[in-house]
Specification:
Blueprint (H helix, E strand, L loop, with lengths): L4 E2 L25 E3 L3 E6 L5 E10 L7 E9 L8 E7 L4 E9 L5 E7 L5 E3 L3 E2 L2
């Protein structure tokens, strides 16, 4: 199961003897990760030049919020610092921002977001095929 990664570590304690049962969940599409509050995705032609879009869709579209959306890249040599498409307010529960990038055939990319409380999230890495 692919999930978005909370960049700040959080602790989780389970009481001894408790039984944890997980309901089956759909696997998010490539470039996406599920958050407690919604889904974060990045789309674009990895390994080529083109438009990349980072999108955040809230589970509860009634509450509007401000988010900073961007991406992070990596190749065999290094992982680049985050770069930002900008800051946007969700409208009807969704926000998306885009920009033009040229990515190499050996690169990977992931979508990143900082929410209104300053907590950072990232999707799993998606690599050129």
């Amino acid at each position: 199961m692919r999930r978005a990664i909370a960049v700040r570590a959080t602790g989780m304690c389970l009481a001894a003897g408790s039984l944890l049962v997980l309901a089956p969940m759909r696997v998010p599409p490539d470039g996406c990760g599920d958050l407690a509050s919604g889904r974060l995705c990045i789309e674009g032609p990895i390994g080529a030049a083109g438009t990349f879009t980072t999108r955040y869709i809230r589970n509860d579209g009634r509450h509007e919020t401000r988010v900073r959306l961007g991406y992070q890249r990596r190749d065999a040599r290094l992982t680049a610092f985050a770069d930002w498409f900008g800051t946007s307010r969700t409208l009807h529960g969704a926000a998306q921002l885009s920009g033009s990038l040229t990515t190499a055939p050996d690169e990977c990319i992931r979508g990143i977001m900082i929410d209104a409380k300053g907590k950072a999230y990232a999707t799993q890495w998606t690599c050129a095929r």
